[in-house]
Amino acid sequence: MAKKIKAAIIGPGNIGIDLMYKLMDSKYIQLDTVVGVIPESEGLALAKQNGFNSTHEGIKAILGNKEIEIVFDATGAKPHLMHAPLLKEDGKIAIDLTPAAVGPYVVPVVNLEENLDSPNVNMVTCGGQATIPIVAAINRVADVKYAEIVATISSRSAGPGTRQNIDEFTQTTSRGLVEVGGADKGKAIIILNPAEPPILMRDTIYTRVANPDKKAITAAVEEMVEKVRQYVPGYQLKVPPIVDGDKVTVMLEIEGAGNYLPKYAGNLDIMTAAAKAVGEKIAQKLLQKRTREVV
User: Fold this and answer.
1) 63 has catalytic annotation
2) Which one in 13, 64, 172, 295 has a CA-CA gap of 20 to 30 Å to 263?
3) DSSP secondary structure of 19-36
4) Which domains does the chain have, with CATH numbers?
């Protein structure tokens, strides 16, 4: 019986290669192949240097390979809309790091357990992964009527994929604040800050609540921050929740782990860290199922 579940990454860009480095020490996932479409891609060259299969033949290179059971898609919203049905038909589980939102939104500390059997899970956005846990924590104790988040990232950490998906970012994050975070209404704003030296990712969460119990809100937020830090060590609460009447403000800062990307790229790091956490949980469940079948 296999001790790990084989996986592939589609998209050898910044996010895909950072995820590659993160998966190298995975207990449950064995990365097998990195897929791209440009022969001279730096990402594919890095994948090959690190001992992984690399191909510029696109998704067709892994379709039909039954050993690969989990596929991380780190391309873009439009490509994933084409990839999703092909992966589903091929019996592969898709972990979508784009804003395509084909499958349910998943934030590891909020709703992973209830979506472990889904054939396609969506990692929302970097802003969603950072802020939805806080909105969910506040909602549990204070009933969030409205949530608005402002994600500020370094312009240097916003590559072509991020820039091409700005509209999808705001729409997907807003929906995630409601569908996963539990807010009645949600709004998301992203700011690309050109400051030099590059700033760390910073997120401000504004909520309007029905039950503004400061003690309960502070305890819930601090507990949630510690849970997120289990897979995103650079996730920090900058100031305790500010409660002003029915308005609650929370400020976060996210520093990347520096696996491949610079530490200021916390916006990209939180996506790959969350994707790894989801992939490992799914792989763990697959392995446990096989152990029971053997017994």
Assistant:
1) no
2) 172
3) HHHHHTT-SSEEEEEEE-
4) 5-123+271-294 (3.40.50.720), 126-262 (3.30.360.10)
